[in-house]
């Protein structure tokens, strides 16, 4: 992982970063909350009978949650080690949003429960990969004494995304658009954040190889050191 920022940023620089971070977080939350809370339920009911819908929806949401659980630490570890000339975080933020959009488009158009489950798992994985890289920029860019202001502001994105997702579902009747519009917003806002982000490429190769043991360490912590 990169060394965290230590020197306080000028207000203009801090606000510029915070606006981009806020926008990207809102877009990613919108992409995942809109289907999870409303759109998936309607979609499943349009594919299977009312009697089968509850079980199918529960299975899809559970598989998606498992996918998200794996994605966050995996993408976080891999983004730390990324050697791209575009930086360590940018490819994961924008790439995750784009993959999520593709998965959401598939989910909105499919008429198969297994394919819908696959699409939702892919969307959850991609969104959480983008989130992991987005959140990592906070330590990269913002000193500890200034992070509270940014995280406090970004805390509003989740309820705003829930409200936005509810509006999308109420205003749009087509399943495909209910999935596609949040994904398009996520890509647009992620692209805006990435364009503003000063993400320096990694200049040295990471020590050691990426291994299952290294990845498993993401789920283990020593309470005496926290």
UniProtKB/TrEMBL annotation:
Keywords, alphabetical: Membrane, Transmembrane, Transmembrane helix
Membrane spanning residue stretches: 21-42, 54-71, 92-109, 115-138, 150-173, 179-195
Annotated localization: Cell membrane
InterPro entries: MFS, MFS_dom, MFS_trans_sf
One Pfam family recorded for the sequence: MFS_1
GO cellular component: plasma membrane
Protein's membrane topology: Multi-pass membrane protein
Keyword Membrane tagged: yes
Domain Major facilitator superfamily (MFS) profile per the UniProt entry, residue ranges: 20-226
Domain of life: Bacteria
MF GO annotations: transmembrane transporter activity
Protein name as it appears in the record: MFS transporter
């Amino acid at each position: 992982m990169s060394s965290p920022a230590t020197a306080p940023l000028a207000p203009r620089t801090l606000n510029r970063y915070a606006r981009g971070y806020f926008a990207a977080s809102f877009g990613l939350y919108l992409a995942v909350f809109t289907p999870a809370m409303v759109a998936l339920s309607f979609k499943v009911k349009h594919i299977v009978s009312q009697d089968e819908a509850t079980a199918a929806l529960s299975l899809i949401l559970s598989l998606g949650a498992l996918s998200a659980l794996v994605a966050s630490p995996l993408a976080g570890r891999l983004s730390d080690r990324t050697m791209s000339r575009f930086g360590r975080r940018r490819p994961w933020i924008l790439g995750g949003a784009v993959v999520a959009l593709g998965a959401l488009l598939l989910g909105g158009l499919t008429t198969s429960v297994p394919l819908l489950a696959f699409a939702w798992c892919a969307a959850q994985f991609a969104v959480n990969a983008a989130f992991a890289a987005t959140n990592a920029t906070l330590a990269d860019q913002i000193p500890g004494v200034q992070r509270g202001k940014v995280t406090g502001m970004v805390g509003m994105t989740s309820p705003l995304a829930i409200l936005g997702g509810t509006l999308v579902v109420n205003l749009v009747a087509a399943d495909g658009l209910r999935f596609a519009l949040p994904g398009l917003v996520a890509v647009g806002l992620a692209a805006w954040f990435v364009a503003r982000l000063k993400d320096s490429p990694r200049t040295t190769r990471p020590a050691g190889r990426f291994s299952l043991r290294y990845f498993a360490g993401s789920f283990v912590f020593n309470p005496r050191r926290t």
